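Researcher: I've got a protein sequence and the SMILES for flavin mononucleotide. Could you write out the 3D structure of the bound complex as structure tokens? I'd like something to compare against our soaking experiments later this week.
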Amino acid sequence: MFILGLQGSPRKNGNTDTLLAAFLEKAAAAGAAVHTVQAARAGVTPCKGCGYCETHGTCVIKDDPMSTELFGLLRQADMVVAASPVYFYGVSAQLKVLIDRCQTFWSRKYVYKLKDPLVATREGVLLSVAASRGRQLFDGIQLTAKYFFDAIDARFSHALTYRGVESKGAIRSQSRLAEDIEAIIEKSVRPMVARKKILFVSRQGGCRAPLAAAMAQQRYGDRIRTAFGGRQPAATLSVPMVQAMQKIGLDLGYRTPLAMDKAFYGISPDLVVTIGTTDTEPPMAGVETVNWPIPNPPGMEEAQMEGLRLDLGNHVDRLIQWIERPSP
Ligand SMILES: Cc1cc2nc3c(=O)[nH]c(=O)nc-3n(C[C@H](O)[C@H](O)[C@H](O)COP(=O)(O)O)c2cc1C
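Model: Sure. Here is the predicted complex with flavin mononucleotide in place.
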């Protein structure tokens, strides 16, 4: 399981930073891989409101960290934790820059009708602090989080909000803090960590492996977590494959092939599926491995992609036997 934390306060070691770090520390101890993005120092360009994503499905800004890295991390995440202080009843400007750029995901979802393979299981968690104590203190931030999580295909599952937290470190004296965090770890993190993990490996991890991983994830929902990797990873996914998946409504945009040992963030899978007729060596010692002898399609025409999808789909169907087998 991979958790992406978005830290929205510009104050280093401030209350938001401390709250998010405490949550991620507990999640890591429960077995999750975690990563924090400091919004104030991420160098993300604000949305231009140009409408390009609504007509092209991608963001017009191609060369900033949002496009080159953060869109990809948001797609890989099983849980996105948005953490922000209340600033004038909203999220901080620094976090809002990242959120607004997710209009690209909104367009992919609502204009292009695409679904991320993790849509059934991804969760969104809001963490927030504020100095005052008014009844509606977190209403604005809750609404922003609701629509942000919807755009990134995450279910808004938990919110931890703390009033009367102002000076640096004040969050530490919240008596419920440890208990509140533990409740989320128990309810959401542990079940996600416990899912069976299947790693799909093809030569370059750019066509067959992502296709199989996405179909298996969609088919088996919360019973498994899939990832894909390459023995010699390509720089990008195969464009005809991504287009073929879009035809069945599955979104593989903003995903890139990873080296197979990085695909699960260093966590060992329960099953490796190697796809190919030549590179059939088990890539990971001590991990159960099966081979699907499916060659790369001879060309990248639409019909060939369709054939590959059907062939891999049949194999994915038969995975159910492994999924239903009791764990040793
Ligand atoms: C620009 C700005 C706007 C703020 N607006 C509010 C507000 O509307 N309501 C409130 O209760 N606190 C407000 N605060 C206080 C912060 O939410 C509070 O100090 C918080 O603990 C800061 O979190 P941090 O340590 O993570 O930066 C504001 C602080 C700043 C700097």
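Model: The two ends are 21 Å apart (CA to CA). The chain has two domains: 2-193, 196-324.
Researcher: Great, I'll pass this along to the crystallography team.
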